[in-house]
Amino acid sequence: MKNKKGFTLIEVLAIIVLIAIVFSITFLIVNNVNDSAKEETIQINENSILAAANIYTEEFNKNLNWRSNDEETMVCVSVEEIVNQGMLEKDKVGTNYEEYVVKVIKSDDDVNSYHLMKKTECKILDTKPPVINGENVEIEIKDDYDVYNGVEIDGTGSEIINKNVTLDGKEITNTKKLDLGEYILIYTAEDEGNNSVEFTRTIKIVDTKKPDIISLEQVPVSSNNNWQKGNIKVTGKAKDTGSGIQSYLFSKEESVDKNNVNWKNLTSSEEEITQYINSYDNGKLYFHVKDRAGNISSKEIQLYIDNIVPIFVSKNGNISLNSIPMATFKDDQSGIKEVKYYISTISTKPDKNNKAFSTSKDISMSCRTSYYAWAIGIDKAGNISEVESLGSYYRSCSSGGSSGGSSSSSSNSSSGSSCDVVCQMQKNSEAWHNATSQKEKDELHKKNEELAQQLPGSSFNQGNGTWNNSSGKPIYSVSDSDKKKSSSSSKTSKGR
Question: Which pLDDT score, from 0 to 100, does residue 463 have?
Fold first, then answer.
């Protein structure tokens, strides 16, 4: 038997390498054949393409991007564009026509030359750098202004293939985020000939719009021009869509300078501006706001504030029987609203906030009683003057009387006014208490019976041995306690 010997590993690898080399050579040959076939297809139809390019150039001459250098003026026309315009049928150019262009060179005798080539071969020699022109401008803050607005970039011989604008080394496209101030922008451009240029332009960001004052009101609101007193809160609201509100000022002046030292800075967290006013000479208050650019807006408000109390001027006479003099007050701010009076049998000066003060001066004075009168003036804001004394009056038993606390002598007759009658009955009562005999008491009692008949409407009556007035108060009584009181009252009266 013969032994069969197989391939070694090295022999197998060698065969594989050999096969790969043969395959690569075959692929390159086939690929070159295909490329040649494509070029041959284009070359076969070159005359048709150039003829169509001639028609295209004549029709679209004004719209073509002609480029020039020192030697020639030319344009590259895409075969695909000629086909798309319907000047050449696809079946006459082959399947790879998108890769080709026609280079058209303009001549002085208006007879152009046409050359079919691949896109990558259609180039023009350009040695001139681009030109950039533009003027410095002022832009309103926060405007979305395109930095290329007002700028012209000319390739001067070839297309611009790259351009940009930078500020402090960073690319910028618009001015919307720029704050107030001047900025230098750097423009750069590069053409197809790799020529580049740099251009600087100054843009100034400004704010020419005044702030908007939304509202200005007094708190609490003064309705119908009502005067108020105390601390009045004035609240103003303002906004500025440009540079923003910087400061504010409440002033009596209608206009203020932007450099006025009294401007108050406004913090960014404040939505409304408040000022407390407790006195004001002029009725108008002006609210001024200033933005960061120095623009000022103003608004006025009519205030009705009065914290000054009225002043007593005079009285038209003295206090007399059942009559109180009229008091006069003045107030230079809101004016006098009303005058109130306080009438008492107590000499102590009342507090001006005492609720017993009234606009009424009506009074019916009792006999043998001292009366004291005071007055206060109240202005339209509610301020109350100091309490002013109008004097005093003592009504004696006679029909007359006197001011200043003096009194007139009383009559002992059994006739006269009601006051005289009551006064005489009071004296008889005092005498009755001091009488030592029953006969004397009976006589005094009889006199009071006769005097009581002179009083209208039976103002006095006798019950259980006691004479009472219309209020039920005893004129005289048999009780020891009343006797003591009456005796004490008699002594006091005599002391007067």
Answer: 53
Provide the pLDDT for residue 36. Answer: 55
Q: What is the mean pLDDT of residues 51-75?
A: 83
Other Cβ atoms closer than 10 A to 342: 21
How far is the C-alpha of 254 from the C-alpha of 281, rounded, in Å?
Answer: 14
Of 277, 302, 327, the one marking the end of a domain is: 302
Give the separation between CA 16 and CA 234, rounded to whole angstroms.
Answer: 99
One-letter identity of residue 120: T
In 3-state terms the chain splits into helix, strand, coil percentages (rounded to 5) of 25, 35, 40
- Give the residue among 409, 415, 447 at the shortest CA–CA distance from 428: 447
* DSSP assignment string, 206-240: E--PPPEEEEEEEES--GGG--B-SPEEEEEEEE-
Sequence-distant (6+) residues with CB within 8 A of 75 are 57, 64, 65, 66, 67, 103, 104, 106
| 84: amino acid identity, one letter | N
Are both 399 and 320 inside the same structural domain?
yes
Whether the predicted pLDDT of 404 surpasses 70:
no
Distance separating alpha carbons of residues 182 and 171, to the nearest angstrom = 17
77/64 Cα distance (integer angstroms): 9
Q: Cα–Cα–Cα angle for 64, 67, 73, nearest 5°? A: 100
- List Cα–Cα distances, 119 to 61, 67, 84, 122, 420, in angstroms: 20, 16, 17, 6, 139
- What sign does the CA torsion over 249, 253, 258, 261 have? negative
pLDDT at 412 (0 to 100): 35
Q: What is the pLDDT of residue 376?
A: 97
Once rounded to an integer, what is the mean pLDDT over residues 285-291?
93
What was the pLDDT predicted at 401? 39
Same structural domain, 367 and 446: no
Query: Do 263 and 291 reside in the same domain of the chain?
Result: yes
What's the rounded mean pLDDT across residues 13-17? 81
Residue 68, domain extent: 45-121
Pick from 302, 266, 305: which is nearest to 286 by CA?
302
The rounded distance, in Å, linking the Cα atoms of 463 and 316 is: 46
In a domain, residue 244? The reply is: yes
Q: Is residue 266 part of a domain?
A: yes
In this prediction the pTM is 0.54
Name which of 434, 422, 362 is nearest 396 in CA terms. 422
Query: CA separation (Å) from 412 to 370, 419, 453?
Result: 21, 12, 17
